[in-house]
Amino acid sequence: MESIVIGICGGTGSGKTTLASRINKAFGSDAVMLSMDSYYKSNRDIPFEERVKINYDHPDSFDTDLLVEHLKKLKNGETIYHPVYDFTQYMRTDEVAETKSAKVIILRRTFELLQQRPSQTSRHQDIRRHRRRRANTEAYTSRRKREGQKPRIRRESVSCHGQADVRAFH
Question: Fewer CB near the last or first residue (10 Å), C or N of the chain?
Fold first, then answer.
């Protein structure tokens, strides 16, 4: 199975979860959603009073090696068992959650995408291009659904300042 990873990033309240849910719903059983929140470092060895002071928005607070390993397995069609994070205790639990591979892997909250922000000019061009593609895509999707076919996966990169960003990876 050939899978693609769709990474979604953006600031607080930018619509990452909403966008991820809509993409997930559009692809149904052909999609699986994974959140970087599951990959916070455990921090079991740090007292609670210190754990609450950690900047959990910093990339160093994530177990990136495990995340990359799991993404590779999902892309290879393998099932993964990712950590479950307890937000009340600021650490991982002893539990794991099963995630099966799918054609579309949706990854929410990706810091890596923020490292290569386009210039202001290209950002506006991206927004205009995205709006044209969205109108064309909506018409295309409606036609495919009327014909009883699933829409094909479309790869596209869009950066909208202050909104959730979407990038597709191979």
Answer: C
> CB–CB of 80/99 below 8 Å?
yes
Cβ contacts of 41 within 8 Å, gap of 6 or more: 61, 62, 63
Question: Rg of the Cα trace of the chain?
Answer: 18
Q: How far apart are CA 67 and CA 98, in angstroms?
A: 14
- Rounded CA-CA distance 151/132 in Å is 18
Residues 99-131: pLDDT tens digits?
999 999 999 876 544 444 444 444 444 555 555
The rounded distance, in Å, linking the Cα atoms of 23 and 17 is: 10
pLDDT tens-place string over residues 41-96: 989 999 999 999 988 878 888 898 999 999 999 999 999 999 999 989 999 999 99
CB-based contact 62:41 (threshold 8 Å): yes
Specify the CATH number of the domain 4-118+154-169: 3.40.50.300
Q: Residue 76 carries which side chain, given as an amino acid letter?
A: N
C-alpha span between 20 and 107 (Å, rounded): 8
CA 53 to centroid of chain Cα atoms:
26
